[in-house]
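Input structure tokens:
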């Protein structure tokens, strides 16, 4: 052990969606951030895992020298190009190799998502952990943090010292996850603990609609709240260092995906495997609770009309940028138009060409254009629209809270186009909707609308709490549907829930450290 302790931090974070046709390139990463080496410290005042790690190291009571490698984050998107991943991997590993020549490191923390895929590399996080392990050798502790929607593999379990995931969905505990990583790492470096982990999983692939981790866990649509409470209870047991519950991101088509529990004990492999298996069996027992109730758009509109006032949220989960979708669906606009909806309605769509057309027409100008499906055409056809430009702006905003808290969001050139009763926010680039940033920064007050389209499976509950009169998850096409029954899985092997509602004699798959 060195004085000061040398702790390396390296982060490559993206949730991939393999059902998309395009490829993620470095441009999309740069649209969020790629901070090399010491630029990482720009995140010190954010809500990120890295901010939590830096704060916890600064307060740990011993001198620490941080070795910043890389902090890169990208909005969810398609499979990363091989060139893109090779570049990011090299940006992380090169400074680590230099640090090893320059006196070595005592420990390393790797904040990642856990569901990133690149061309030729299905398990990016496993690949990174293994590469880091080969550089630092067998004894340096590696702690990796993940999104709760991670897909844990045997490679990750074998090569890391400890894995832990966010506890909350919506993800408002990234900073605290960083702090917990430090609490796992420092005793392991000092030899006060010997982390040993096991991960057990069951084949459940469900969208996030019923995946919130807070609320009434007695309710039949809140399985993650129950499981999260069970995890915290287990952490009180002597010898248990950390428990994570994983609700796997279902929009990748990979073998052996599933939801599960990861238990880290202090040098007690049997306890870790036993408790992880027990929790995985609990997850399977509650599988039907993960499937949300869906409404046809016409049914949701009819029900919404029966409720006085607004806004009524139409939850278009299938086009969720946070799950990797392009955000370019106009399915909801098309159906609402066909239904003859006349009430004031707010919707959003990514369409850079239409945003340009609005800018060319100017505020007050009339625009005739096609709208939608310009990025990913496989989910529907563009819609011909005519409208009046109400607003034009640069699409910049700052996230307050959550997974990107404190960082900038960049929608690019954006416009609000009035198409009959529909006010449509047209954006040039996809951004994650932690809350209602997109509508808010466009000056759109959802309280003025009867119907509001939102494109996420969970965050709307928090963003519109006390504002929305009701919400309906609508059954629309797209790469992030509320139920995975609609997706054409090929690599993920049957049987799995919900396609297979029961599986006789199912035993959880268990990964242990060798
Ligand atoms: Zn997540």
């Amino acid at each position: 052990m060195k004085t000061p302790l040398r702790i390396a931090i390296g982060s490559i974070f993206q949730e991939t969606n393999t059902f998309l046709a395009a490829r993620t390139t470095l441009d999309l990463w740069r649209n969020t951030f790629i901070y090399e080496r010491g630029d990482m410290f720009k995140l010190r005042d954010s809500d990120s895992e890295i901010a939590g790690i830096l704060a916890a190291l600064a307060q740990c009571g011993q001198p620490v020298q941080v070795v910043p490698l890389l902090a890169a984050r990208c909005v969810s998107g398609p499979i990363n190009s091989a060139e893109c991943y090779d570049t990011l991997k090299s940006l992380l590993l090169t400074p680590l190799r230099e640090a090893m020549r320059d006196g070595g490191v005592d420990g390393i923390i790797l904040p990642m998502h856990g569901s990133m895929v690149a061309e030729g590399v299905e398990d990016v996080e496993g690949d990174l952990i293994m590469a880091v392990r080969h550089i630092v050798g067998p004894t340096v502790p590696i702690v990796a943090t993940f999104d709760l929607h991670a897909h844990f593999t045997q490679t990750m379990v074998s090569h890391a010292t400890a894995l832990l995931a966010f506890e909350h969905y919506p993800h408002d505990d990234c900073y605290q996850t960083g702090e917990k990583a430090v609490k796992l790492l420092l005793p392991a470096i000092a030899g006060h603990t010997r982390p040993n982990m096991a991960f057990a999983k069951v084949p459940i692939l469900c969208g996030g609609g019923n995946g919130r981790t807070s609320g009434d866990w007695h309710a039949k649509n809140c399985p993650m709240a129950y499981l999260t409470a069970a995890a915290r209870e287990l952490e009180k047991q002597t010898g248990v260092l950390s428990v994570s519950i994983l609700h796997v991101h279902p929009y990748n088509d990979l073998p052996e995906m599933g939801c599960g529990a990861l238990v880290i004990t202090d040098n007690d492999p049997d306890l870790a495997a036993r408790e992880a298996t027990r929790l995985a069996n609990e997850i399977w027992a509650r599988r039907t609770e993960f499937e949300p109730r869906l409404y046809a758009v016409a049914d949701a509109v009819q029900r919404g009309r029966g409720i006085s006032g607004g806004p009524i949220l139409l939850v278009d989960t299938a086009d969720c940028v946070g799950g990797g979708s392009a955000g370019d669906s106009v399915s909801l606009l098309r159906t609402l138009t066909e239904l003859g909806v006349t009430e004031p309605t707010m919707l959003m769509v990514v369409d850079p060409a239409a945003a340009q057309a609005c800018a060319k027409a100017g505020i007050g100008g009339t625009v005739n254009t096609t709208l939608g499906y310009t990025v990913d055409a496989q989910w529907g056809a563009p819609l011909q629209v005519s409208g009046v430009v109400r607003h034009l702006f640069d699409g910049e905003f700052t996230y307050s809270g959550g997974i990107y808290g404190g960082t900038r969001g960049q929608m690019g050139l954006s416009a609000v186009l009035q198409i009959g009763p529909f006010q449509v926010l047209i954006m040039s680039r996809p951004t994650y909707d932690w809350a209602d940033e997109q509508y808010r920064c466009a000056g759109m007050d959802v309280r003025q609308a009867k119907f509001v389209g939102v494109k996420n499976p969970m965050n709307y509950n928090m963003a519109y709490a006390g504002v929305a009169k009701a919400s309906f998850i609508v059954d629309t096409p797209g790469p992030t549907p509320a139920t995975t029954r609609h997706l054409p899985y090929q690599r993920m092997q049957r049987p799995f829930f919900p396609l297979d509602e029961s599986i006789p004699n199912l035993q959880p798959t268990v990964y242990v450290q060798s």
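The radius of gyration is 23 Å. The domain at 1-193 is CATH 3.40.50.2300 (Rossmann fold).
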